[in-house]
Each structure stands twice: as C-alpha cells, then as structure tokens.
C-alpha cells in the first residue's frame, strides 16, 4: 500500500473493512514482530480472517499466520464438539470473510459429526437389557442441546440440517429446537389487544420464522403439541408471515384431539376484532377434519367395504374434539365483539356424529344469547336450529323448556321431543307389569314435582305453556296415567299379600275370617280401580252389588255348613 501510494509525504494508512477490527490487527502485528500470544478458540477465527485480509501466506514466510490458524483448527477444533461450538460462536461479526475461508462450514460439519459419534458411543456405553421384556433401553443425555442455544439463528439452522444428514436422533433435535426457542424468545412479552405500535424487532421475527421453516424442511416431528401452540402464539405476536402460521396450524391439526382448552384460547391481536383469535382455531379445525377424512378413506378395505366409523380411532378423535370445541364455544360466547357468523361457522364445521349429546352446544348457545341481547328474532332462530333437540338430556330439556331467551319454535321442539320420550318410556314400563324395575326407570324420567293434592305442578313457563297448550295437556295426561299405574300396582301388591294370608289360614283350618277379608279387599280393589274410568259411578255400584251378592252366598253356605255340623 505504501509502494502503490503516490503521496511522497505519506504518514498514515487507512485500512477499510478489516475483519475483527483493531484487536485482530494488533494480534497480527504481534505475530509479525515475534511477540508471544496464544491461539485460542475465541481468537482463532479472527486471526484466520485478518491473515487472509493481509495476505499472510507461505509466499512471504514459512508457517505464516494462515498456516498456523489452519493447523490449530484441524488438530484441536474439528475433533472436539465443545471447541467447535466455541469457534462457531466466535465467528459472529466476521462476515463475509469467515464464510470465504470456509471456517463456518467446517465448524458446522464438525459439530454434527461429533454429536453423532458421541451419541453413538454414549448409547452403547449405557445400553441395558430389560430382563423382564428382553428389550433394549438406551439412556443418553445430550449435553450439547443447551450449548447450541448460544448460536446465531442462521448458524443454528445449518447445524440442525447437518445433524439430520449425519444421523442424530430426531428426539435430540426436537429437544434442541424447543430449548433454542425458549432461550432465544424469552424476552418477548405478551402484547394486549389495546397496545399499539411495533412489539419486537426483526430479529425475533426471523428466529420464529426460521424455526418453523426448519421443522418443515427437515421434517422434524419430535416436538410436543404444547410447543407447537407456543410457537403459534409467538408467530402471531411477532407478526410472522401467514405461510409460517399455516404450517404450524397444519401440524397442530394432526393432533388436535390431544389439545387442552387453554391451548385454544389464543388472544386476538386485532383491536377491532373479537377477544380471541377465532379464525386461527377455524383453520386448525379444518386441518383436523381433513386429516380425519384422509384416515377414513385410507381405512377402507380392499373389497370396497368401509371400516366401522363408530368404532374407528378417527371417530374417537372426532368425539374428543367435539367436546373440546363445545368448551371453546362456551368460553368465547360471552365476548360482545364476537360476530354471529363466526360463531355459527365454528359450530357448523363439526359433523353431526361429533356430538353424542348436545348439552355442551346448548350451553354455549345459551351463553351467546345472554351476552348478545340485541340479536333479532330471525338470528336467534337461525342459531338455535343448530341444536338437535333429540340429543338433549333430561336436565337440558327441562332447562330449555323454561328458557325465555330461546325462540318459541325452539321451546315447542323441545317439548315435542320430550313428549315422545315420555310416551316411549311409558310404553316400555306399561308392557311389563310383572316387576317394578321398568316402573322405577319410568318414574325417574319424570322430573316434574307432584303437589300434595296429587295434581302435577307446572314445570314450564307461562310463555311456553301458552305457545304449546296441546303438548302441555298431553304431558298432564301422561302424568295422570302414571299415577293410575302406580295406584294399581299398590293395590295389586295388597291383593297378593291378602291372598297369601287367606291360603295360610285355610291351611290352618280357619278359612272364615281370612275369606271374608279377602272378599272385602277384592270389593274395595274393584271399586277403586273402577273409579279411574269415565263410568266410575256405574262400575262402583255394580261392584257393590256383586260384593253384596257374594256376601249373601257366603252366609247361606255357612248356614248349610253349620246345619250339617250340628245334625
């Protein structure tokens, strides 16, 4: 530079873009003047780059600085995992020179190769045999998982890709990704919907997007569902690209049945939208249903017969997701900013067989109606049509019959199906009069209290009763039939007991007293049962006449018997 300068009075040289800065140049100067200093993992990358910049090759001196640094790298660094990590961490700020000399590539390959060798050696050293099952178990703790978290995100991405090529276990790589995300994204604070302005810099966004892209390109699946939900929340908060968010949502959709309700409650980042991110959950649910459809299509037999959907694992997953979504709907329903169309779309997305009982859906819709009193009557009708009244339990039906928030048509449908259920139960109990089990099960389905006078008390609101008089009347008639059956069973039990007493008396030689009691009980029983019908008085009189004639015949027989005895 001095020779090429045209300034005869040159007293100062300016070096531009010196890799490593003044510290690296000072070390190179010490090397030129023979001063002693130590090459370490911290400064070897700086020395290699400054030597390349100053052209310190063998053309000027034997064992120049370039050769010295290369020897240190080959003899000490690449053979040791820990030293390779330290050198790679020290490469920050040396671009692009450190890439040109190939330091980064060699450190990355050394880390991956040493990790693979160490995992293999450690696994063989800790290999144990389970005497009970004869299976092999491997106990190996990868200490380098935490150390990788100190790498720059682009260097870390290259290390993970190299580890996949070298055969490092997917579980170890998954653990490393989780630890890196927890360490690198620890400083990100949760933003509220009322906050405005930028939240984080581009660095955090790059980290989130790189980790998501790494899991997709390297096909890394050994991560937990909770971690995926955490990455999704981070992607939303740092405003990551939509493609990255969709990638995480697809992975979550593959195992949605294992999620919890807290996982789904993702806050919305839009100030004008609802409190929770309903659109994200909608996309996750679509991905889940697509996976179920693919599983069902793949389970069909070669003969063309499909597998039993009700007993398949996919149907069990759908039932779990159905219960999960009912809980989610109940949580988001009180949100006053939640649009009706979004709420209904989320309900309609699940197939009918996803809900065995619609109690959870009814609860969510009732909460929504309570939190949104401004809904029109047509909107309420449209929303309540999503409830299958035949799937409501007894308690839910009783609650719906008295619910003033429901449209009139909904109340009528609930009463109608409840009436069908009562008739079916009554038919089942009346057809088996030999035992009391059927009657007990029937009476347990009657949830309306009976007043002290024996008249069924009303369980429906005046508004519902006025709208469905025919159904209420039919309900009262069924309750009266139930009371009649109950009384007849009681009388039948009494008659059987008295008949037994009469037989016992005849065996003891005293038929007279028990015979009279039995005839009297028959008379009372016939009289009481006759009162149930519309011609009660006429039957009552005829039964009295019959009982009177039977008593006269009994007296005449006793007189004849007595005359024979005294003769």
The mean pLDDT is 76
- Tell me the strand percentage band: under 5%
What does the main sheet amount to?
2 strands, antiparallel
Give the N-to-C terminal Cα separation.
164 Å
Regions with little confidence, pLDDT below 50 for 5+ residues: 129-140, 190-199, 300-311, 431-468, 525-552, 554-567
Count of alpha/pi helices: 25
Overall geometry:
elongated
CA radius of gyration is 43 Å
Order of helices and strands: HHHHHHEEHHHHHHHHHHHHHHHHHHH
The tally of beta strands, per DSSP, is 2
Q: Percent of residues in helical segments?
A: 55-70%
Decide which structural class fits the backbone: mainly alpha
Strand order of the largest sheet: 1-2
What does this structure look like?
The protein has 567 residues and is mostly helical. The chain is built from 25 helices and 2 strands. It has a two-stranded antiparallel sheet with strand order 1-2. A hairpin with a 6-residue loop joins strand 1 and strand 2. Helix 11 packs antiparallel against helix 12 and helix 20 packs parallel to helix 23. The protein starts with 20 loop residues before the first helix and ends with a helix. The C terminus is likely disordered.
């Amino acid at each position: 530079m001095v020779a090429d300068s045209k300034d005869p009075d040159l007293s100062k040289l300016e070096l531009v873009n010196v890799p490593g800065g003044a510290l690296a140049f000072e070390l190179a100067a010490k090397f030129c003047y023979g001063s002693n200093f130590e090459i370490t993992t911290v400064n070897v990358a700086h020395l290699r780059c400054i030597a390349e910049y100053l052209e310190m090759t063998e053309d000027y001196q034997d064992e120049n600085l370039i050769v010295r640094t290369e020897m240190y790298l080959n003899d000490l660094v690449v053979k040791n995992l820990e030293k390779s990590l330290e050198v790679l961490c020290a490469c920050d700020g040396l671009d692009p020179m450190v890439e040109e000399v190939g330091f980064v590539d060699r450190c990355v390959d050394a880390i991956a190769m040493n990790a693979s060798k160490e995992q293999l050696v450690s696994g063989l050293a800790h290999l144990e045999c389970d005497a009970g099952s004869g299976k092999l178990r491997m106990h190996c703790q990868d200490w380098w998982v935490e150390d990788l978290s100190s790498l720059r995100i682009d260097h870390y991405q290259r290390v993970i890709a190299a580890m996949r090529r070298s055969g490092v276990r997917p579980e170890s790589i998954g653990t490393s990704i989780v630890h890196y995300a927890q360490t690198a994204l620890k400083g990100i604070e949760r933003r509220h919907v009322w906050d405005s302005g930028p939240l984080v810099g581009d660095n955090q966004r790059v980290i989130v997007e790189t980790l998501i892209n790494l899991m997709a390109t390297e096909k890394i699946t050994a991560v937990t569902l909770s971690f995926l939900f955490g990455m999704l929340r981070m992607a939303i908060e740092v405003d990551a690209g939509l493609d990255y968010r969709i990638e995480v949502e697809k992975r979550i959709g593959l195992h949605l049945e294992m999620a919890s309700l807290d996982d789904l409650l993702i806050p919305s980042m839009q100030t004008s939208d609802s409190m929770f991110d309903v659109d994200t959950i909608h996309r996750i649910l679509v991905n889940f249903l697509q996976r179920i459809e693919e599983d069902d299509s793949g389970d069909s037999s070669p003969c063309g017969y499909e597998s039993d959907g009700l007993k398949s694992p996919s149907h069990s997953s759908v039932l779990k997701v159905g219960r999960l979504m009912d809980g989610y709907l109940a949580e988001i329903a009180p949100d006053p900013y939640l649009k009706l169309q979004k709420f209904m779309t989320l309900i309609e997305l699940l197939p009918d067989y996803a809900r065995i009982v619609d109690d959870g859906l009814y609860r969510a819709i009732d909460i929504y109606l309570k939190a949104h009193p401004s809904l029109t009557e047509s909107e309420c009708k449209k929303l309540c049509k999503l409830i299958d009244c035949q799937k409501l339990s007894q308690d839910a039906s009783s609650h719906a019959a008295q619910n003033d928030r429901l449209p009139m048509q909904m109340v009528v449908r609930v009463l109608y199906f409840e009436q069908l259920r009562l008739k079916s139960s009554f038919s089942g109990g009346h057809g088996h009069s030999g035992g009391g089990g059927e009657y007990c099960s029937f009476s347990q389905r009657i949830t309306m209290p009976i007043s002290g006078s024996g008249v069924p008390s009303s369980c429906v609101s005046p508004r519902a009763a006025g709208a469905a008089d025919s159904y209420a009347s039919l309900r009262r008639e069924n309750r009266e039939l139930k009371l009649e059956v109950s009384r007849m069973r009681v009388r039948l039990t009494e008659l059987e007991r008295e008949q037994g007493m009469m037989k016992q008396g005849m065996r003891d030689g005293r038929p007279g007293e028990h015979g009279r009691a039995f005839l009297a009980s028959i008379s009372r029983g016939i009289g009481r049962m006759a009162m149930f019908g519309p011609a009660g008085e006429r039957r009552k009189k005829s039964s009295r006449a019959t009982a009177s004639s039977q008593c006269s015949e009994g007296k005449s027989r006793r007189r004849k018997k007595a005359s024979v005895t005294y003769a």
